[in-house]
């Protein structure tokens, strides 16, 4: 009979839970169809995240080919695709995949579960993407956690599944002919042809492993003291490989466990827990992409000023650390965590612009876009999420810059127009008197924007905005 291995956000052979089960459970005589389904309703136009993901798929396709494993593409509505496939191959009786536990993928999987059942196709679905699945860690009463710290305590106590290195694959994977696959490949090639990322995007399992090794050698033990400084660039940059599944989360976990204890190691582990935490929160709040988790903030009168939003997007707010963060995002498809917090706070507090607009902009631009972590991060910054920053703790963009980029060297990297500004003005160019501006030949408003809002004065307005909700 025929068996489908449906690859999604698990673009690797190493420690791939569904795929290793398939190899173990299927018979020599079974024909395995490895599939990648392209669903146009998931495509986001002009999106770094979308384009980068497909480059990872392409690399995976090539890697599989080298090992004589053909990856077949399907294009269209998943249910229609699978219906057509079943009509041709009525001996298809099992499907293996790593499940999506939240968001779009979860809804799709639920819909398809009915389809597979109706057609007597056995489902073999596994939790693969996280150290703990969405329902694994609950309070003793069975309720889900809402606050990170008690969740983290439980999470630490639970043992993690082993990492299983992929052994040599000895079986034969036939290339299966079908017009649907021809169409799928054609569409995939079209997608790839149109990709023009303005930055280098390295991908694949080997690259991911190199990033992990490099981080463990150079960054892990100093992670605690350096992770908040964008210039130090000491974080792991593993997020994009975890997002595409090019790296097994269990591989990361066990590699870190093998290291000696240090504060850096401990803090890094807690970050991996945040990833699981937000995944669990999204599962329990399936509407959270559109709706505030905290009920009392669902009626907030967010602002929708397109011009202000555009200035934020382009990194022209007049607050150097905010602008440097946004330009890092626009130029590289990635932004340092500290800056994500600063720019998200600026949009939602200083401008009082709807956090959903920021969340969607990040979705377009981030090569590590992960719905649960992104929505979690945005609702945290907007104070509307569970265990979020309280609304009265408002990031001051100037002091954040002074603290986390003290010499302004990171700002200068992304804002070359500020290159020659003396250090005393780098975080607050508007402090310069007319005389200073003249002496430097640098005029605020011409060479760099004036601050779009006065952070000092806006505080009472923000407090009233939340209090009156
Ligand atoms: P490291 O500091 O090396 O952390 C290691 C890993 O831990 C990361 O790769 C990530 O998987 C996980 N992690 C770290 N911090 C967090 C966190 N706060 N929440 C959840 N997981 C975390 N992360 C994403 O992966 N995708 C997103 O779309 C995303 N959007 C965000 C939006 C906002 C507004 C904020 C404040 C944070 C967002 N984060 C997101 C979390 C965090 O910024 C990134 O995971 C981190 O910057 C990725 O870089 P790194 O791999 O070098 O992280």
TrEMBL record:
Positions that bind FAD: 223, 235-239, 268, 271-278, 368-370
Uppermost EC category: lyase
UniProt cross-references to InterPro entries, sorted A to Z: Crypto/Photolyase_FAD-like_sf, Crypto/Photolyase_N_sf, Cryptochr/Photolyase_FAD-bd, Cryptochrome/DNA_photolyase_1, DNA_photolyase_1_CS_C, DNA_photolyase_N, Rossmann-like_a/b/a_fold
Name under which the protein is recorded: Deoxyribodipyrimidine photo-lyase
Assigned EC number: 4.1.99.3
Cofactor binding note of this UniProt entry: Binds 1 FAD per subunit.
Protein keywords: Chromophore, FAD, Flavoprotein, Lyase
GO MF entry, a single one: deoxyribodipyrimidine photo-lyase activity
Catalyses which reaction(s): cyclobutadipyrimidine (in DNA) = 2 pyrimidine residues (in DNA)
Domain Photolyase/cryptochrome alpha/beta: 1-131
Similarity-based family: Belongs to the DNA photolyase family.
Site (Electron transfer via tryptophanyl radical) residue list: 302, 355, 378
Pfam families membership: DNA_photolyase (PF00875), FAD_binding_7 (PF03441)
GO biological process, one term: photoreactive repair
Keyword Protein biosynthesis: no
Gene3D superfamilies linked to this entry: 1.25.40.80, DNA Cyclobutane Dipyrimidine Photolyase, subunit A, domain 3, HUPs
Names of required cofactors: (6R)-5,10-methylene-5,6,7,8-tetrahydrofolate; FAD
């Amino acid at each position: 009979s025929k068996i489908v291995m449906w690859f999604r956000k698990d673009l690797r052979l190493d420690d791939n839970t569904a795929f290793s089960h398939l190899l173990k459970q299927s018979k020599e005589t079974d024909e395995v169809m490895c599939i990648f389904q392209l669903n146009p309703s998931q495509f986001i136009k002009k999106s770094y995240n979308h384009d980068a993901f497909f480059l990872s798929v392409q690399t995976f396709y090539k890697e599989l080919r080298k090992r004589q494993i053909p990856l077949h593409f399907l294009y269209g509505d998943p249910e229609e695709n699978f219906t057509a496939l079943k009509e041709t191959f009525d001996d298809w009786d099992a499907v293996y995949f790593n499940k999506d536990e939240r968001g779009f993928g979860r809804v799709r999987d639920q819909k398809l579960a009915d389809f597979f059942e109706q057609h007597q196709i056995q489902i073999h679905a596994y939790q693969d993407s996280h150290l703990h699945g969405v329902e694994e860690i609950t309070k003793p009463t069975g309720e889900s956690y809402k606050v990170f710290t008690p969740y983290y305590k439980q999470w630490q106590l639970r043992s993690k599944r082993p990492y299983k290195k992929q052994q040599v694959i000895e079986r034969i994977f036939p290339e299966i002919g079908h017009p649907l696959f021809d169409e799928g490949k054609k569409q995939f090639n079209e997608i790839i042809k149109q990709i023009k990322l303005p930055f280098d995007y390295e991908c694949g399992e080997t690259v991911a492993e190199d990033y992990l090794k490099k981080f463990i050698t150079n960054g892990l033990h100093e992670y605690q003291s350096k992770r908040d400084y964008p210039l130090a660039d000491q974080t792991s940059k593993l997020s994009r490989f975890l997002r595409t599944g090019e790296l097994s989360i269990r591989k990361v976990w066990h590699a870190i466990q093998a290291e000696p204890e240090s504060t850096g190691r401990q803090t890094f582990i807690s970050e991996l827990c945040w990833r699981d935490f937000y995944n669990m929160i999204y599962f329990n709040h399936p509407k959270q992409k559109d709706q505030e988790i905290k009920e009392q903030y669902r009626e907030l009168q967010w602002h929708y000023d397109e011009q202000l939003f555009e200035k934020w997007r382009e990194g022209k707010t007049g607050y150097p650390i905010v602008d440097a963060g946004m330009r890092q995002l626009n130029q590289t498809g990635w932004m340092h965590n500290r800056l994500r917090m600063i720019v998200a706070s600026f949009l939602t507090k200083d401008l009082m612009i709807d956090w959903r607009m920021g969340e969607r902009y990040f979705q377009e631009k981030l090569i590590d876009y992960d719905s649960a972590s992104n929505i979690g991060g945005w609702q945290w910054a907007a104070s509307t999420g569970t265990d979020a920053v309280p609304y009265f703790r408002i990031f001051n963009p100037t002091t954040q810059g002074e603290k986390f980029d003290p010499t302004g060297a990171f700002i200068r990297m992304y804002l070359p127009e500020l290159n020659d500004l003396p250090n005393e003005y780098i975080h607050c160019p508007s402090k310069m008197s007319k005389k200073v501006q003249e002496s430097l030949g640098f005029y605020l408003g011409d060479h760099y924007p004036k601050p779009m809002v006065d952070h000092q004065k806006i505080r009472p307005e923000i407090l009233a905005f939340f209090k009156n909700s």
